[in-house]
Protein backbone atom coordinates (compact mmCIF):
# COMPACT_ATOMS: atom_id res chain seq x y z
CA UNK A 1 0.00 0.00 0.00
CA UNK A 2 1.30 3.42 -0.96
CA UNK A 3 0.05 6.55 0.78
CA UNK A 4 0.07 9.91 -0.99
CA UNK A 5 -0.64 13.12 0.95
CA UNK A 6 -2.03 15.99 -1.12
CA UNK A 7 -0.96 19.09 0.77
CA UNK A 8 -0.38 22.81 0.51
CA UNK A 9 -1.22 25.13 3.39
CA UNK A 10 -2.80 27.62 1.00
CA UNK A 11 -6.53 27.24 0.45
CA UNK A 12 -8.09 27.14 -3.00
CA UNK A 13 -5.03 25.89 -4.87
CA UNK A 14 -6.63 22.68 -6.16
CA UNK A 15 -5.79 20.13 -3.44
CA UNK A 16 -9.26 18.59 -3.27
CA UNK A 17 -9.82 18.68 -7.03
CA UNK A 18 -6.47 16.98 -7.53
CA UNK A 19 -7.04 14.37 -4.80
CA UNK A 20 -10.50 13.42 -6.13
CA UNK A 21 -9.50 13.21 -9.77
CA UNK A 22 -6.19 11.42 -9.30
CA UNK A 23 -7.93 8.95 -6.97
CA UNK A 24 -10.58 8.40 -9.67
CA UNK A 25 -7.98 7.98 -12.41
CA UNK A 26 -6.10 5.36 -10.36
CA UNK A 27 -9.35 3.51 -9.59
CA UNK A 28 -10.14 3.55 -13.32
CA UNK A 29 -6.98 1.60 -14.10
CA UNK A 30 -7.97 -1.06 -11.61
CA UNK A 31 -6.29 -0.08 -8.37
CA UNK A 32 -8.18 -0.24 -5.10
CA UNK A 33 -8.07 3.35 -3.91
CA UNK A 34 -8.95 4.87 -0.53
CA UNK A 35 -9.47 8.63 -0.37
CA UNK A 36 -9.14 10.04 3.14
CA UNK A 37 -10.78 13.42 3.69
CA UNK A 38 -8.77 15.22 6.36
CA UNK A 39 -10.28 18.68 5.85
CA UNK A 40 -13.09 19.61 8.28
CA UNK A 41 -14.79 21.38 5.35
CA UNK A 42 -15.41 17.96 3.85
CA UNK A 43 -15.13 19.13 0.23
CA UNK A 44 -13.68 15.83 -0.96
CA UNK A 45 -16.57 13.93 0.69
CA UNK A 46 -19.22 16.19 -0.88
CA UNK A 47 -17.42 16.22 -4.22
CA UNK A 48 -17.49 12.45 -4.38
CA UNK A 49 -21.16 12.26 -3.52
CA UNK A 50 -21.18 11.34 0.19
CA UNK A 51 -23.43 13.97 1.76
CA UNK A 52 -23.15 14.97 5.41
CA UNK A 53 -25.98 12.78 6.80
CA UNK A 54 -24.40 9.71 5.19
CA UNK A 55 -21.06 10.18 6.91
CA UNK A 56 -21.69 7.61 9.61
CA UNK A 57 -18.03 7.12 10.52
CA UNK A 58 -15.32 9.57 9.62
CA UNK A 59 -11.69 10.59 9.78
CA UNK A 60 -12.50 12.12 13.20
CA UNK A 61 -13.31 8.64 14.52
CA UNK A 62 -10.02 7.30 13.16
CA UNK A 63 -7.97 10.08 14.75
CA UNK A 64 -9.79 10.62 18.04
CA UNK A 65 -11.35 7.28 18.93
CA UNK A 66 -8.86 5.12 17.09
CA UNK A 67 -11.64 3.31 15.25
CA UNK A 68 -10.06 0.94 12.67
CA UNK A 69 -9.88 2.30 9.11
CA UNK A 70 -11.99 -0.58 7.77
CA UNK A 71 -14.92 0.47 9.99
CA UNK A 72 -14.89 4.02 8.58
CA UNK A 73 -14.66 3.17 4.88
CA UNK A 74 -17.62 4.22 2.72
CA UNK A 75 -18.09 2.84 -0.78
CA UNK A 76 -18.62 5.49 -3.48
CA UNK A 77 -20.42 5.45 -6.83
CA UNK A 78 -17.05 4.98 -8.49
CA UNK A 79 -15.96 1.34 -8.72
CA UNK A 80 -12.68 0.77 -6.89
CA UNK A 81 -12.81 4.07 -5.01
CA UNK A 82 -13.63 4.16 -1.29
CA UNK A 83 -13.78 7.16 1.01
CA UNK A 84 -13.23 8.00 4.64
CA UNK A 85 -15.30 11.19 4.89
CA UNK A 86 -14.70 14.24 7.04
CA UNK A 87 -17.30 15.73 9.36
CA UNK A 88 -17.39 19.17 10.99
CA UNK A 89 -16.26 17.76 14.36
CA UNK A 90 -12.84 17.31 12.74
CA UNK A 91 -12.39 21.07 13.19
CA UNK A 92 -12.03 20.43 16.95
CA UNK A 93 -9.65 17.52 16.53
CA UNK A 94 -6.43 19.53 16.68
CA UNK A 95 -7.39 20.96 20.07
CA UNK A 96 -8.69 17.65 21.38
CA UNK A 97 -5.49 15.85 20.40
CA UNK A 98 -3.12 18.38 21.90
CA UNK A 99 -2.27 16.51 25.10
CA UNK A 100 -1.86 13.12 23.46
CA UNK A 101 1.63 11.76 23.13
CA UNK A 102 0.94 10.06 19.77
CA UNK A 103 -1.11 12.99 18.42
CA UNK A 104 0.85 13.31 15.16
CA UNK A 105 0.99 9.54 14.60
CA UNK A 106 -2.66 8.56 14.85
CA UNK A 107 -3.26 8.25 11.10
CA UNK A 108 0.06 6.51 10.51
CA UNK A 109 -0.78 3.91 13.18
CA UNK A 110 -4.27 3.41 11.79
CA UNK A 111 -3.02 2.90 8.22
CA UNK A 112 -0.25 0.57 9.36
CA UNK A 113 -2.93 -1.81 10.62
CA UNK A 114 -4.98 -1.54 7.41
CA UNK A 115 -5.08 -3.84 4.42
CA UNK A 116 -7.35 -3.95 1.40
CA UNK A 117 -6.35 -0.89 -0.63
CA UNK A 118 -3.46 -0.45 -3.07
CA UNK A 119 -3.26 3.28 -2.68
CA UNK A 120 -4.37 5.84 -0.10
CA UNK A 121 -4.79 9.51 -1.06
CA UNK A 122 -5.09 12.00 1.79
CA UNK A 123 -6.77 15.34 1.10
CA UNK A 124 -5.26 17.80 3.60
CA UNK A 125 -6.77 20.97 5.08
CA UNK A 126 -5.29 24.38 4.21
CA UNK A 127 -2.90 24.63 7.17
CA UNK A 128 0.27 23.05 8.51
CA UNK A 129 -1.39 22.05 11.78
CA UNK A 130 -1.78 18.68 13.42
CA UNK A 131 -4.10 17.26 10.74
CA UNK A 132 -1.58 17.90 7.97
CA UNK A 133 1.20 16.58 10.23
CA UNK A 134 -0.78 13.37 10.65
CA UNK A 135 -1.01 13.13 6.86
CA UNK A 136 2.71 13.79 6.34
CA UNK A 137 3.55 11.31 9.09
CA UNK A 138 1.42 8.63 7.45
CA UNK A 139 2.47 9.27 3.85
CA UNK A 140 5.14 7.64 1.72
CA UNK A 141 5.09 10.59 -0.58
CA UNK A 142 3.72 14.10 -1.01
CA UNK A 143 1.86 15.62 -3.96
CA UNK A 144 1.77 19.42 -3.95
CA UNK A 145 -0.76 21.29 -6.08
CA UNK A 146 0.54 24.78 -6.77
CA UNK A 147 -1.49 27.59 -8.24
CA UNK A 148 0.50 29.80 -10.61
CA UNK A 149 0.23 33.08 -8.75
CA UNK A 150 2.60 35.63 -7.32
CA UNK A 151 3.32 34.23 -3.83
CA UNK A 152 3.23 30.56 -4.84
CA UNK A 153 6.92 29.87 -4.18
CA UNK A 154 6.95 31.64 -0.84
CA UNK A 155 4.31 29.34 0.61
CA UNK A 156 6.07 26.35 -0.88
CA UNK A 157 9.31 26.94 1.03
CA UNK A 158 7.35 26.86 4.27
CA UNK A 159 5.78 23.56 3.25
CA UNK A 160 9.15 22.08 2.31
CA UNK A 161 10.57 23.12 5.69
CA UNK A 162 7.72 21.27 7.37
CA UNK A 163 8.47 18.20 5.25
CA UNK A 164 12.10 18.35 6.39
CA UNK A 165 11.04 18.53 10.03
CA UNK A 166 8.71 15.55 9.59
CA UNK A 167 11.53 13.61 7.89
CA UNK A 168 13.92 14.38 10.73
CA UNK A 169 11.50 13.67 13.55
CA UNK A 170 9.27 10.81 12.62
CA UNK A 171 8.98 9.86 8.97
CA UNK A 172 12.49 9.67 7.42
CA UNK A 173 11.19 7.93 4.30
CA UNK A 174 8.74 10.66 3.28
CA UNK A 175 9.50 11.66 -0.31
CA UNK A 176 8.15 14.39 -2.54
CA UNK A 177 6.30 12.94 -5.48
CA UNK A 178 6.07 16.24 -7.26
CA UNK A 179 4.54 19.67 -7.66
CA UNK A 180 1.54 19.96 -9.99
CA UNK A 181 0.77 23.37 -11.49
CA UNK A 182 -2.97 23.99 -11.31
CA UNK A 183 -5.49 26.49 -12.72
CA UNK A 184 -3.09 27.36 -15.49
CA UNK A 185 -4.37 30.11 -17.76
CA UNK A 186 -2.42 30.62 -20.96
CA UNK A 187 -3.99 34.00 -21.59
CA UNK A 188 -2.60 35.34 -18.34
CA UNK A 189 1.02 36.42 -18.64
CA UNK A 190 1.66 36.27 -14.91
CA UNK A 191 0.74 32.57 -14.92
CA UNK A 192 3.45 31.95 -17.52
CA UNK A 193 6.04 33.94 -15.58
CA UNK A 194 5.31 32.15 -12.32
CA UNK A 195 5.33 28.78 -14.03
CA UNK A 196 8.79 29.50 -15.56
CA UNK A 197 9.99 30.70 -12.16
CA UNK A 198 8.72 27.58 -10.38
CA UNK A 199 10.30 25.30 -12.98
CA UNK A 200 13.68 26.99 -12.86
CA UNK A 201 13.60 26.83 -9.06
CA UNK A 202 12.31 23.27 -8.60
CA UNK A 203 13.41 21.57 -11.84
CA UNK A 204 12.23 17.98 -12.21
CA UNK A 205 10.15 18.17 -9.07
CA UNK A 206 7.50 19.91 -11.17
CA UNK A 207 5.29 17.59 -13.22
CA UNK A 208 5.34 18.25 -16.95
CA UNK A 209 1.55 17.98 -17.04
CA UNK A 210 -0.17 21.24 -16.22
CA UNK A 211 -3.80 21.44 -15.09
CA UNK A 212 -5.62 24.18 -17.03
CA UNK A 213 -8.26 26.45 -15.56
CA UNK A 214 -11.44 24.71 -16.69
CA UNK A 215 -14.97 25.46 -15.56
CA UNK A 216 -16.00 21.78 -15.86
CA UNK A 217 -13.60 20.98 -12.99
CA UNK A 218 -15.38 23.47 -10.74
CA UNK A 219 -18.89 22.35 -11.80
CA UNK A 220 -18.38 18.66 -11.12
CA UNK A 221 -18.41 18.76 -7.26
CA UNK A 222 -21.93 20.22 -7.18
CA UNK A 223 -23.07 17.05 -8.96
CA UNK A 224 -21.29 14.87 -6.40
CA UNK A 225 -19.05 13.47 -9.11
CA UNK A 226 -15.35 13.64 -9.93
CA UNK A 227 -14.79 15.71 -13.09
CA UNK A 228 -13.35 12.57 -14.63
CA UNK A 229 -16.81 10.97 -14.37
CA UNK A 230 -18.92 14.12 -14.87
CA UNK A 231 -17.20 14.97 -18.16
CA UNK A 232 -14.27 12.70 -18.88
CA UNK A 233 -13.40 14.47 -22.09
CA UNK A 234 -13.12 18.09 -20.90
CA UNK A 235 -9.63 19.64 -20.92
CA UNK A 236 -9.39 19.44 -17.11
CA UNK A 237 -10.23 15.73 -17.01
CA UNK A 238 -7.81 14.97 -19.82
CA UNK A 239 -5.10 16.84 -17.94
CA UNK A 240 -5.78 14.88 -14.74
CA UNK A 241 -5.57 11.59 -16.68
CA UNK A 242 -2.21 12.73 -18.06
CA UNK A 243 -1.05 13.76 -14.58
CA UNK A 244 -2.08 10.35 -13.21
CA UNK A 245 -0.05 8.61 -15.92
CA UNK A 246 2.96 10.78 -15.18
CA UNK A 247 2.56 10.29 -11.45
CA UNK A 248 2.48 6.49 -11.78
CA UNK A 249 5.93 6.54 -13.38
CA UNK A 250 7.18 8.17 -10.17
CA UNK A 251 5.74 5.42 -7.98
CA UNK A 252 8.29 2.63 -8.56
CA UNK A 253 6.84 0.09 -6.14
CA UNK A 254 3.32 0.44 -7.55
CA UNK A 255 4.53 0.27 -11.13
CA UNK A 256 5.88 -3.19 -10.40
CA UNK A 257 2.66 -4.29 -8.74
CA UNK A 258 0.38 -2.94 -11.49
P1 LIG B 1 -8.23 23.39 -2.17
O1 LIG B 1 -8.65 22.00 -1.84
O2 LIG B 1 -6.75 23.56 -2.29
O3 LIG B 1 -8.84 24.42 -1.27
P2 LIG B 1 -10.01 23.12 -4.46
O4 LIG B 1 -9.60 21.91 -5.20
O5 LIG B 1 -11.21 23.00 -3.56
O6 LIG B 1 -8.78 23.72 -3.66
O7 LIG B 1 -10.24 24.29 -5.52
C1 LIG B 1 -10.71 25.56 -5.13
C2 LIG B 1 -11.84 25.99 -6.06
O8 LIG B 1 -11.36 26.10 -7.38
C3 LIG B 1 -12.97 24.99 -6.11
O9 LIG B 1 -14.17 25.68 -6.28
C4 LIG B 1 -12.65 24.16 -7.36
O10 LIG B 1 -13.81 23.61 -7.94
C5 LIG B 1 -12.01 25.19 -8.26
N1 LIG B 1 -10.97 24.61 -9.12
C6 LIG B 1 -9.96 23.76 -8.76
N2 LIG B 1 -9.17 23.50 -9.81
C7 LIG B 1 -9.69 24.19 -10.86
C8 LIG B 1 -9.30 24.32 -12.24
N3 LIG B 1 -8.21 23.70 -12.73
N4 LIG B 1 -10.07 25.11 -13.02
C9 LIG B 1 -11.16 25.74 -12.54
N5 LIG B 1 -11.56 25.66 -11.26
C10 LIG B 1 -10.84 24.89 -10.42
MG1 LIG C 1 -9.71 21.29 -0.18
TrEMBL record:
Residues 3-176 form the AAA domain. It comes from the Bacteria. It holds the Pfam family AAA_31. This is AAA family ATPase.
Amino acid sequence: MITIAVANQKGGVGKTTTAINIATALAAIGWKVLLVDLDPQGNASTGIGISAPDRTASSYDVLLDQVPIADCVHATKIPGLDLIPATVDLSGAEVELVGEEDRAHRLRNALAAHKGHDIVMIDCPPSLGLLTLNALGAANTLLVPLQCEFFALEGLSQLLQTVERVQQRFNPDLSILGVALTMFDRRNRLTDLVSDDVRSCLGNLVFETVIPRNVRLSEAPSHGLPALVYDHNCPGSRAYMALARELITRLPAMRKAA
